[in-house]
Design brief:
It contains five helices and three strands; from the N terminus they run H-H-E-H-H-E-E-H. It is an alpha+beta fold and 102 residues long.
Length: 102
């Protein structure tokens, strides 16, 4: 499928909207830091907070934003939720971004 930036059909328009949401999410410094921390494997909020240097509440807010666009996975372990990168979703965004900047 050839990707057009202007979104001439519904699939291309959807790709543009998803790419915009992705770029908006990673444009936030704290969310980008969280993604970098999660490169090393899944983590719970109690591990993310000190690594990024933000409060629990703010970390939870950013994790919710990243999860809402499909960049994160969740796995419950007892009372904790471990967040990890959704590698398939990230790969899809990478393909779309490569087509845009090519």
């Amino acid at each position: 499928m050839e990707f057009e930036c202007c979104g001439k059909n519904s699939q291309e328009a959807e790709n543009v909207a998803k790419t915009y949401a992705f770029l908006r999410a990673v444009a936030d410094t704290n969310r980008l830091k969280i993604l970098c921390v999660l490169q090393g494997g899944s983590k719970c909020v109690c591990e993310i907070v000190p690594a990024v240097g933000i409060s629990d509440k703010l970390a939870s807010h950013h994790l919710k934003q990243l999860k809402s666009i499909g960049l994160l996975t969740e796995q419950r372990e007892g009372n904790f939720i471990r967040y990890g990168l959704d590698r398939k979703a990230i790969k899809k965004y990478k393909v779309i971004l490569n087509k845009i900047i090519k």
